Amino acid sequence: MEQNEDDKARGYWFRRGFVGLVPLWAGAIPSGIAFGVAARDVGLSAVQTQVMSLTLFSAAAQLSATTLWAAGTSTVVLVATAMALNAHLPLLGLAVGRSVRPAGAVRFLTGWLLTDGAFGIALGRGGQGGQLRLATLLGAGTSMYLSFNAGTAIGALVGAAIPKHVLSDLGIDLVAPLSFLAVLAPLIRTRVTLLVAAVAGCTAFGLARVIPSGLAVLGAGVVASMVGAWYQERIPSERVR
Amino acid sequence: MSMTVQIVAMAIGVYALRMTGLVLREVTIPVSLDRGLRFVPVAMLTALVVTSVTRRGEGRTEGIVAAMVAALVARWTGKMWMCIVTGIVVYGMLHRL
User: Fold this and answer.
1) What is the pLDDT of residues A7-27, one digit of tens each?
2) ipTM score here?
3) Chain A residues whose beta carbon lies within 8 Å of the beta carbon of residue B83
4) Which of 86-105 (A) contact B at CB < 8 A?
5) pTM for the complete prediction?
6) Which of A241, A195, A232 is nearest to B32 (CA)?
7) pLDDT in tens, B51-63
8) Which helix (H) or strand (E) segment is A188 a member of?
9) Beta carbons of B45 and A228 less than 8 Å apart
């Protein structure tokens, strides 16, 4: 008798999610290392660095925090920037909630591990019909969590082993913006995204001359996003370059 | 405010975003807001790159040049580690001159 997919143990689907995300370790581990090194460079202790990856679990927010700390930024701006960089997460949560409906305590764990990568992998590894399974999502999420934190631990150790003047001579403070560039480059494919980037860059540059960097980033982010939304409304179809 | 407190504050903020979608039922989002939200990553990342690269003290010009070269590498290869390594290497070379 053929075993129905749904009968397979949750462990099977968890493992599918966990192993399915392994290709993404190629991004999670280096960005964890990049953060670990950048965090130490800015003055965080090894414990603080690791705790940040364990609790915040967002490479974008964590790396941007290191650049903002270097510029001296208020807590409000740090939190607002971290949230703005993750502003799409409620939408992701809604998509998950609709297909999976986690209940009770499991919801809090699902939320803790929620990332785009885990979602994408779990969707792809959900068996026939491409349905999202909670076990697969948790497996993928755990895989991402472990690899990112492992990378952080490595980076924190490496960052501590190298003297600070060597780190600044090497330009280690560039690691965070360089990682952002790597994420940014493939995102700019259409005229509207190019416009958004151009507006964001110019606005941020101009604002940073008169207000603190963190506020300049937020202001530029809001302005450029609004410009993008406005432009998108004027041209219904995006033309790919 | 100590950095540890700031870390916890950021973690709470982002966790709230993660839980929002999971606990809410059906929610309709205004189309304009949805459109705007989609551009936030590009806008924020660009703003962050520009401010952090141009606001450095020592080695500012070298940093900007290194970032530009790294951006090209990112575009061509699509690999984060190559972008970072290229940027650091180019900066190192320019800085030593």
Assistant:
1) 578 889 999 999 989 988 888
2) 0.83
3) 178-179, 181-182, 185
4) 86-97, 102
5) 0.79
6) A232
7) 889 888 778 899 9
8) none
9) no
